[in-house]
Amino acid sequence: MRLHVNGTGGKMSSSSTESFKVEISTLYDYYENYNDAPKPCSKESVKRFAASFLPLLYMLVFLVGLMGNILVIVVLFKYKRLKSMTDVYLLNLAISDLLFVLSLPFWSYFTVDEWIFGTPWCKIISWIYLVGFYSGIFFIMLMSIDRYLAIVRAVFSLKARTAFYGLITSLIVWLVALSASIPELIFRESFKEQNYTTCKPRYPGNFTTWKLFSTLEINILGLLIPFIVMAFCYSMIIKTLVHCRNEKKNKAVRMIFAVMIVFFFFWTPYNIVIFLQSLEITGVFRNCQVSRNLDYAFQVTEILGLFHCCLNPVIYFFMGEKFKKYLKMLFMNWPLPVDICKWCGLHITYHTESTSSFHTQSTGDQDAL
Amino acid sequence: MQHLHLLCLSLLVLGCVLNVSGGNNVVDCCLRTSENHIPGRIVQDYWIQLVQDGCVIPATVFITTRGKRLCAPLQAPWVIRLREKLDASSARKAKSQVI
C-alpha cells in the first residue's frame, strides 16, 4: 500500500504517466465503485436560483422601504412633531425599518459576487440587519400595546400614553434589540470557504448548540413573544369594540385583523424554515433533496419577511386618514408634485378637497387603526 | 399603480435574463461518507468539510482528476495518508513554481 501510494506521487511526472492517470481514472469512473462513493449534495441549482432573482428583489425592497420609511419620518417631523406615544413608536418603527433596509444593498452584492467588504463590515452589516429585524418587530408589538391602552384602558392611558413614556420604552426596546444581536457582532467573520469569500458566523466550541441557540432566539423573540402579546392586546381590543356602538368599529376590527394576518403571513414561514434548518444541522434528516428544498424555502421566505418592512409604513401610516392629508400638504409644497405622485401611484387631486375636514378626527387611535 | 406593476415586472424579467452565478450561505455538503478506499491516482486535490461550515458531518472531500467530488471520512487512516500525499505534492508544485 505504501509503495503503491509513493509510486503515483513520485517523481515520474512525464506526459505519458499523466495520460495514463487520466485513462485509469476514466476506467475507475465507469467500472469501479465510483458510483457508490458518496458525493456532496450539490447546491448549484439553489445558488443559481438565488443569484438570479434575489439581488433584484433585495434592491426592490431597498428602494420601496427607503422611500416609504423616509416619507413617514419626514411627515412625522414636519406635521406631527412627536406629540403622542403613537408618534414616537411610528418614528422608531420607521427608523428600525430604515436600518434594516440599509443593509440590503450589501446582501444584494453578496448574492451576486462574494463578500468583498471585509470582516468589520461583515460584522456591522449583519448586526444592523438583526437589530433592525428585532427592533422592527418589537415596535409593532409596542404599537399593539399602545392601542390596547388607548382603547381598553382608556382612563389609565391618559397618564401612561405620553411621548415621554414612549421614549423610555423605545430606548428599552433598542437596548434589548442591540444586546440580542451581540452574538452576531462577535462571531460574524469574513473568510475564504471553498474558494469563495463568505460572511458567516464562526462560533467557538459546539457549532450545533450555537446554531440552535441563535435560531431559537429568533423564533422566541421574533415570533413567539410578539404573537402572545399581539394576540392578547388585539383580542382585548376586539372584545371592547364589540360592546361599543361606533360606526368606525368595523373598520377598526378589519384593520386589526389586517395587521395581525400580514405580520404572521410574512414572518411565520421564515421562522418555520430557519427552525427546520437548525434541525437539519443537528442531523434529524440527512437527505439532499430535503436540504435543497429547505434552501429554496429559505430564500423565498426571507424575501417575504423583508417585504414586511415595506408594508409597515402602508399599514401603520398611509392607511390612517390623517396621513393622506399630510401627504397632500407635503406634495403641494413641491415643485413638480404631479410627476412625483404619478410615480408613487398616488393620484392626488389637489383642488377638489380643502383642508377643512382636517380636524374631524378626534383621537389619534382611530387614526392609527 | 400601473407604473409600479410595470417596474416590478421589468425588474423580475431583468433578474431572469441576468442569471448571475453565486449564492450566499449555501454550501455543498457531504451528507454521508463511505469506507471504500479511493485510489490516490484519481484524486488531484481535497478540502476539509467541517460542521462549522454549516454541514451535518465533518468529512474530507476529494476532487478527482475529472473534477468530480467524492466524500470520504475525516479521520480514517487511508484518508489521512492520501491527504498527506496530496499536501506533499502541492507543496512541491508550489516550490517549483517559485524557483
Give the helix/strand class of chain A.
mainly alpha
The percentage of residues in β strands of chain A lies in under 5%
Structural class of chain B, please? Answer: alpha+beta
Helix content of chain A: over 70%
**Total number of beta strands of chain B:** 3
Q: What spatial form of chain A do the alpha-carbon principal axes imply?
A: globular
CATH topology call of chain B: OB fold (Dihydrolipoamide Acetyltransferase, E2P)
Low-confidence stretches of chain B: 6-23
- What is the class of chain B in the CATH system? Mainly Beta
Give the largest interface: A-B, 63 and 54 residues
Share of helix of chain B, binned:
25-40%
Q: Could you tell me the radius of gyration of chain B in angstroms?
A: 21 Å
Q: Can you give keywords for this protein?
A:
heterodimer; A: about 375 residues; two-stranded antiparallel ribbon; 15 helices; disordered C terminus; B: about 100 residues; alpha+beta; OB fold (Dihydrolipoamide Acetyltransferase, E2P); three-stranded antiparallel β-sheet; 3 strands; about 40% helix; Chemokine_rcpt (chain A); membrane (chain A); receptor (chain A); C-C chemokine binding (chain A); CCR1-9-like (chain A)
